[in-house]
Amino acid sequence: MVVPLSSMCEGEKGKIRKLELPPLTRERLCGLGFVSGEEIQLVKVAPFGDPKVFRIKGTDITLRDDISMWILVETSSVPLSYVSEGDYWVSLINGGMGFRQRLRVIGIEEGIKISVIGNLGKRIEVSAKGIRSTLSRGQAMRIIVRER
Amino acid sequence: MENQTDAIESKKIKIALLGNPNVGKTSIFNVLTGSRQIVANWPGVTVEKRTGVMKHANHTVDVVDLPGTYTLGATSLDERIARDFLIDERPDVALVIGDAVNLERSLYLLLQVLELRGDVVLAVNAVDEARKAGFDIDKHELSKQLGIPVVLTSAVTGEGIEELKNTLIKSAKSSSHVHYLFTDEIEASLRNLSDRIRGNTSLSAFDKRWLSIKLLERDKEAEKLTGMSLDYDYSIEIAETRYKYIKRILSTSVKGKEKIGWNLSEAIDHVMTHRFLGILIFLAIMYIVFQLTFTISGPLSTMIEDLLSGLGSVVGSWIGIDWLRSLVVDGVIGGVGAILVFVPNIFILFLALGVLEETGYLPRAAFVIDKLMYAMKLSGRSFISLLLGFGCNVSSIMSTRSISEPKERLVTILVSPFISCSARLPVYVLIAGTFFGVNAGIVVFFLYLLSIVVTVLSALLINKLFFKGEPSTLIMELPRYRKPRLTSIVLYTWNKGRHFLEKAGTIILAASVVIWLLTYFPTEGTGSFAATIGKALGPLFVPLGYTWEMITSLVFGIAAKEVIVSSLTTFFGNLSMSGTSLDIMRTIISPEIALSFLVFVLLYVPCMPTLAVIKNETGSYRFVFFSAFYSLAVAYAVALIVRVVGGLL
Ligand SMILES: Nc1nc2c(ncn2[C@@H]2O[C@H](COP(=O)(O)OP(=O)(O)OP(=O)(O)O)[C@@H](O)[C@H]2O)c(=O)[nH]1
Ligand SMILES: [Mg+2]
């Protein structure tokens, strides 16, 4: 799945697809190694959520969201319903306010870590922020997760 | 015979040092030329070109250290300086310094340089660190693949420096230009463009292939130069080709990549830039820096004070002529001595700043603070510049050259004089010590806090007034942590602290003599010229309640803030030379006036050198006047508030 660099989760890796930035900024980033096909990792988020530190070609570069949101990266994201047991990151929730609110109550939000405990049959058992809960397959289809 | 060869060489060889920021260009420059330029572990330390002389095997060569740059595209002033030097001044050899731990990116710049010109030498620096990290770099293979001389160096251990010198001299005498090839499609366009450029005789001085590449990249300068503009943009393809080419070269010449496992730098970073702890750690570090500045230096200052007062009485007893004794003892020893007492404070402050700069913490602090700076439409980068201002506002303003956003840079320049520089420190210590005794520390802390508050508010105001709040941006590399080396720290402290001593020996000495003269002529005391100056301005300061001595010292303080201390000691001090005691002053004015005076000193007109550098960096007197009058107004207003509120308490 292609997402803006700014929406990656801490620790997540991706491959750069495209830089949708003005020429001068793009050129500067090129010199730092931001070219398509390059692997990039979000290493760290600053105290107030912005800026973020990215690791590319072995060095740490900090960018603000206003730049990193225009850098598109390919990440290995899939709907929660397809994954097997293990730890994942919630990258996207396809749904309205109500759906999001319901998920928030059981600890599931974009950007947090989620553990799939059981994925058999109609129901998926997960745990997020220490809260264990069970999701229906339909709900799980609308939660997009990525591997670390 | 050998002298003859020297004489025949009519033109001096010129070598330019280029490379990514923080790869060690200045360190190499220092070992090549024996210079002592400041090096520090963050990108953007060098912001101007510096020339030094390298003597090697009967050759005398000019070596030019340049600011770091990631590409030749130049988005900030310091990068522009590097690019323009390379293109306009045409050095005989371009020495590209690369980082052995991060060769890939270093080679990207190298390729851009190779497109522009020949006679390029690559120094792969910091091999000591690369070996520790488990990299094995084959310089012969690199050299073969790139077609240029390659030397592995370490500015720290001295490895490869002799070889580098030899290689540089050899390259200066040869002349070769290698090219690497792009995709067929791009090569076809390049041929086509080169042919069109060939027709233009005014461009004969430039490399046609280079101009063509730049045109394909839609480089603005190249478009201006050639008057040509293409309607397609190959910049992405060209960048990707460069990186592919680099990957191929490195696959055969560098072995043993990435040791996996526990990484010290990462572990430290985890704490230093922690989401919750990060800001606390920063505040703690700043607190320690200021504590060190004021406590450790205490005994040293007392020693210097005793020494000087001893000197004063000895010299005083030698001189028989009254006026001469007064000039030497009160004027020179008293005036300059009042400043020398603070040498330990200043040096320890710079020592602490040096450690922060050498470890690589500064960019981390900038990262942690960035969001707060964003509220002021500034960035973590401008935060670094402002932080340097606690040492000296001039170097703070110089360092803004690497801020790529012009508006952000201007705002940073205009607010930086409000950061309380080390020259103001003697005034605080002297007056707070005289008036507030045990609470002096709190008063000084309050002044530093006020300095930050006024800086923040001014940034907000200037942004609102002039720029309608356009945001800044942040692209900054976090260097790897380095253990501060004693030699670098000593170099740093001496380089910065020396300035203070130089001032004491020149401007402050001169001012002390002038002030003494003005105090004793035409008649001593209230009939003197000094009193006349203060009294003439007196009406303006009635609301603040300053005496003529204080007003006159403020006038002289514009030359250099320390002069305020020399003047006050000359005006209020007594013959026995008691450098730090102004007891007489305490009987004349009340504590709230003293506090208001300190606030005034903190905020009023920047010193002459700062005003000069504002003129230089902004290129306009408009901002000098703005800075002078704005700060004067702010100082007056805040000082008045302090006096009135203080009077009520
Ligand atoms: N271990 C090691 N450290 C080095 C070497 N060369 C430089 N350094 C360190 O790298 C840091 C940066 O050095 P500088 O010489 O200031 O780098 P620069 O390229 O001039 O940096 P800018 O002027 O900011 O572009 C300093 O902390 C140096 O001590 C080296 O060969 N080995
Ligand atoms: Mg430098």
Write the layout of secondary structure elements.
The complex is a heterodimer of chains A (148) and B (649).
Chain A: E1 2-4, E2 13-19, H1 23-31, E3 39-45, E4 52-56, E5 59-63, H2 65-68, E6 71-74, E7 77-79, E8 86-93, H3 97-105, E9 113-120, E10 123-128, E11 131-136, H4 137-141, E12 143-146
Antiparallel strand pairs in A: 1-6, 2-3, 2-6, 3-4, 4-5, 7-12, 8-9, 8-12, 9-10, 10-11
Chain B: H1 2-8, E1 13-19, H2 25-33, E2 50-56, E3 59-65, H3 77-89, E4 93-99, H4 103-116, E5 120-125, H5 127-132, E6 136-137, H6 139-146, E7 150-152, H7 161-173, H8 184-198, H9 208-216, H10 220-226, H11 235-253, E8 254-255, H12 264-272, H13 277-295, H14 297-318, H15 322-340, H16 343-359, H17 361-375, H18 380-388, H19 393-398, H20 406-415, H21 425-436, H22 440-467, E9 475-478, H23 486-505, H24 507-520, H25 529-541, H26 548-557, H27 563-572, H28 583-588, H29 591-603, H30 608-618, H31 621-648
Parallel strand pairs in B: 1-3, 1-4, 4-5, 5-7
Antiparallel strand pairs in B: 2-3, 6-8
Helix pairs in contact in B: 4-11, 6-11, 8-9, 9-10, 13-16, 14-15, 14-16, 15-24, 15-27, 16-23, 17-18, 20-22, 21-22, 21-29, 22-29, 23-24, 24-27, 25-26, 26-27, 29-31, 30-31
The structure holds guanosine-5'-triphosphate and magnesium ion (MG).
What this model shows, in words?
- The complex is a heterodimer of chains A (148) and B (649).
- With 148 residues, chain A is of the alpha+beta class.
- Chain A has 2 domains: 2-75, SH3 type barrels (Roll); 78-146, SH3 type barrels, CATH 2.30.30.90.
- Chain A is 18% helix and 45% strand.
- Chain A contains 4 helices and 12 strands; from the N terminus they run ββαβββαβββαβββαβ.
- In chain A, β9 and β10 form a beta hairpin.
- Chain B is an alpha/beta fold and 649 residues long.
- Among the domains of chain B are: 13-173, P-loop containing nucleotide triphosphate hydrolases (Rossmann fold, 3-Layer(aba) Sandwich), CATH 3.40.50.300; 184-255, Helix Hairpins (Orthogonal Bundle), CATH 1.10.287.
- Chain B contains 31 helices and 9 strands.
- In chain B, the strands form 2 sheets. Chain B has a 6-stranded mixed sheet with strand order 2-3-1-4-5-7, with helices on both faces. In chain B, strands 6-8 form a two-stranded antiparallel sheet.
- In chain B, a hairpin with a 2-residue loop joins β2 (50-56) and β3 (59-65).
- In chain B, α9 crosses α10 and α17 (361-375) packs across α18.
- The longest helix of chain B is centred in the last third of the chain and has 28 residues, at 440-467.
- The termini of chain B are far apart.
- Residues 1-8 and 574-580 of chain B have low confidence and may be disordered.
- β5 of chain A pairs antiparallel with β9 of chain B, so a sheet runs across the interface.
- The complex binds guanosine-5'-triphosphate and magnesium ion.
- Guanosine-5'-triphosphate (GTP) is lined by residues 19, 21-27, 39-41, 43-46, 67-68, 125-126, 128-129, 154-156, 358, 482, 488 of chain B.
